[in-house]
Amino acid sequence: MSPKRVTIKTIAKEVGMSIMTVSRALNNNSNVNDQTKTKVQQVAKKMGYIPNHIAKSLVQRKTFTIGVVVPEIAHSFFQEVIRGIEEIAYDAGYHIILTHSAESFQREQLCLETLLSKRVDGILLSVAETVTDFKIYKELIRLKMPMVFYDRGINDIGISTVGIDGTKAAEILTEHLIGLGYMKIAHLAGPLHLSIGANRRQGYLNALKRHKIRAKKSYIVEAGLKEKQGYEGMKKLLNQTKKNPPRAVVAVNDPSAFGAIDAIKEAGLRVPEDIAIVGFADDIRSQLIEVPLTTVRQPAYEVGKVAADKLIKHIESKTEAVEDLVLNTELIVRKSCGWSKKKN
Amino acid sequence: MSPKRVTIKTIAKEVGMSIMTVSRALNNNSNVNDQTKTKVQQVAKKMGYIPNHIAKSLVQRKTFTIGVVVPEIAHSFFQEVIRGIEEIAYDAGYHIILTHSAESFQREQLCLETLLSKRVDGILLSVAETVTDFKIYKELIRLKMPMVFYDRGINDIGISTVGIDGTKAAEILTEHLIGLGYMKIAHLAGPLHLSIGANRRQGYLNALKRHKIRAKKSYIVEAGLKEKQGYEGMKKLLNQTKKNPPRAVVAVNDPSAFGAIDAIKEAGLRVPEDIAIVGFADDIRSQLIEVPLTTVRQPAYEVGKVAADKLIKHIESKTEAVEDLVLNTELIVRKSCGWSKKKN
DNA sequence: AAAAATATTGTTAACGTTAACATAGAAGAA
DNA sequence: TTCTTCTATGTTAACGTTAACAATATTTTT
């Protein structure tokens, strides 16, 4: 952008007025003579003036920019969330800087540092899987940086979270299995320090309890959110329950379920005849695989919209309440839970 | 972010040195005593210093930010492109501002104005469907704003474009139909002022010509890139060819094909028995619909990567050549082209 | 030991804008 | 007419940083 830049200074010289008048005229600010205003705006247009938001942001300490941290950009769930965020942000006159933590704690730190340096007005973040240290979130609170967690948050830390009721959804999912007659139900859990991990496990336990099924420690394996970890987790699970293998598995999410299915097949077992499985999140692939996966649909686009909306409220009013917003989920029954088969 | 901010000035006062020394120490710049450097860095950390990129950008006239304009954020193709862009940008130390033109010319103008005002270092853009006036692109060139088109570009305007060889891909697609025995092949074209529209139509015509099939004007309808437009276009096509309806249709893209399928069904015809159809782009839905769609897979993620890479080269070297980069496509044969049926 | 070179630190201005206060002129009120 | 109140514009400083040049202290060379 080399050709000698046009600034309000240039315009001021051209129209023979002070830069302040030009600034006011261009911002349609009060107390500028109508003639002056029109004149300035005409000249600005003619000269090809492009306002410099950087300078404006510096003096006003406001960028109209929202920082978004996504833990897994390849996941359709998050892509839809981004879409929701963009829509709301656009309507409110904000723009978004997109960053990607790739499920890495370190990289998440880096994303946040960048966003702070770029002086975004607020941050939307979904906690990376490998995060175990919440110091930086507390620091952000201390800095009064407006922030909202979406999908994956930290409880009782003073930051609003927008997501689903994972506990309830996992409970419904598990109860669905129980309703089909399964008694020996295992759980491939996610990271328990993340609310999604803890909640889904809790929902699983709640369902068992309600139906007076004793939870077995060996039936719960803390795996992870990725396909590979689901695979490893399932292998471990099969290994430690050889004498009494489960008849159904509640996986923490769909990718994890995909991995688990691989492990089940590898062990020479069939889904759902030998082991039924249900996932969580409704990944696009879930309906495409050989035995389509029973899962829970999360309203990704809505999550993005609501989170962005809440964040902007936080940004624009110091008194906006910190609260958790819970959106509805929907049970999607497909073949992997073996609804049409005999069970035991 | 209210608590009295720590700036290099604050630090300078604390360590009893000039702000310039502090600046140098923090930037690991040459010519600072090692002791001083360590001291300053320690104090900075202790005081919770957060560099202000806004101020830095202002003076250096460089933001390390890339502006991305996406025409349809709900489309999985573009979501994958974004993923590719993010990856390359991250590796090169750039961040991305994501904007959405929603296929609207006006809104695209707005996106570009914003990006200019935010002083991004470069712009990646895929032309919105309703764009017919290229003035602003020329203006960007004049401003020497580094820029690369991805997927949808404008020919011979002096801006690099990263995409696929739409002509060739459409030719292959059409030839596939011809190879299956179809002779009466129609085309639902996209906007012809966009390269993707023009190229795909050309490929369709090339294939016909090569096989000595006369192209009929009534068999070509300029529709649009969206599902609804495909629907309307197909209705029009059926209407204007009542005496001699086509046996196969080459749609400009998958959404358009979906719409066309609806129109075909609505007319009481079957796909592919009565009318075969092929799309373009491999939308995620293409394999899910009742009669899975034969289409062309475009390497979306790769497109994003290559485009970002090219843009960064443009940014970092004034002499980078303007050129069109062409990536390979892959024909995906599914049922909608009726490969297993009789044809005429 | 003086001169030259180098290493380290400091000073000033600039990036492009707006906030806050100041001023001049015009219009209205007394 | 004079005082007051607007209206329109101007002046100055600030936002937080770096570039360019200046100055000082230290080391090296001759």
Task: Provide a quick synopsis of the model.
In chain A, 43% of the residues lie in helices and 15% in strands. Chain A has 344 residues and is α/β, with parallel strands linked by helices.
Description:
Chain A folds into 3 domains: 44 residues, lambda repressor-like DNA-binding domains (434 Repressor (Amino-terminal Domain), Orthogonal Bundle); 131 residues, 3-Layer(aba) Sandwich (Rossmann fold); 140 residues, Rossmann fold, CATH 3.40.50.2300. Chain A is 43% helix and 15% strand. Chain A has 12 helices and 12 strands. The radius of gyration of chain A is 26 Å and the shape is elongated. Strand 2 of chain A pairs antiparallel with strand 2 of chain B. Chain B binds a DNA duplex (30 and 30 nucleotides) through helix 2 and helix 4.
Number of helices of chain A: 12
Fraction in beta strands of chain A: 5-15%
Shape of chain A: elongated
Oligomer status:
homodimer
Q: Kindly provide the name of the CATH class of the largest domain in chain A.
A: Alpha Beta
The name of the CATH topology of the largest domain in chain A is Rossmann fold
Biggest sheet: strand arrangement of chain A = 2-1-3-4-5-11
Rg on CA atoms of chain A, Å: 26 Å
Could you spell the SSE succession of chain A in H and E letters? HHHHEHEHEHEEHEHEHEHEEHEE
Taking the alpha carbons of the first and last residues of chain A, their distance comes to 71 Å
